[in-house]
Specification:
41% helix, alpha/beta, elongated, two-stranded antiparallel sheet
Amino acid sequence: MTSNEPAAHDAVVLAGGGARRLGGADKPGVRVGGRALLDRVLGACADARTTVVVADPRPTARPVRWAREDPPGAGPVAALDAGLRQTATDDVLVLSADLPFLETDTVRRLLTALRSGGAEGVLLTDADGRDQPLVAVYRTAALRRELAALSADRGGLTGLPLRRLTAGLDLTRVPDPVASFDCDTWDDIATARARIREHGHVLDEWISAVKDELGIDLDVDTGVLLDLARDAAHGVARPAAPLTTFLVGYAAAQAQGGPEAVAEAARKAVALALRWAEEAAQGKPGQGKPGQEKPGQEKSAGPGGSGPDAG
């Protein structure tokens, strides 16, 4: 690791709860915006060196390592202990599997806050100011210390609430009512599904869903592509918009490039669409071409000349 690279971190995602308030439904598999809740969380922690999901194995959009508390259903503290046993970094991201609005930027913000201060953990608080210990990053050594102390004191970790674990930690709190929003009830699910379809969110949500579905891990400037689609639709024809954006993506893939290749291909296509529109405007009936007049109209010879209106 060079001095410019961030320190590595692992992630533990707890996904094995009973979801009693959802009637026992498979909560990690419930879809919000076309993606399973678990896959949405895995997308947010994509920067982790190793991601451990504590639950029974299932298909996921990203590769993960699986763990299970013993016995299954022993509670969140036991589950966290099982996941932590498969991590090896100094810092560990700890998440629940029902966070529809968690994003990579939030995770990075938590990590930055931990590494720039002296606390043993940084967690989000919700809209009511309550701690959310499953949207947090911790010093791995501090978690292991508290887990060992709890196990020795209680004769095991089964059935213990997370607050018993975090009570012994020095924590920094970061308010974030959106990223900390979790889905415990069907009303919560409905709220999440409605929010991502709002005008300000729907496009980003759709692009993220498509990338997950197609297995694409590429960040591009969607504004560039939208401008391209607009110019192609207005300057050529409406069907040109989706076809042109497809060809731009294909060209970037052929060049084996990343976001820069997409941007360059889009730039060329935009320039072509603008030239196409300029030519179309010049050739419209009644406008004539540069240096030519409308049919039936001759050039004026100027003052005193022999044009149509001359003496």
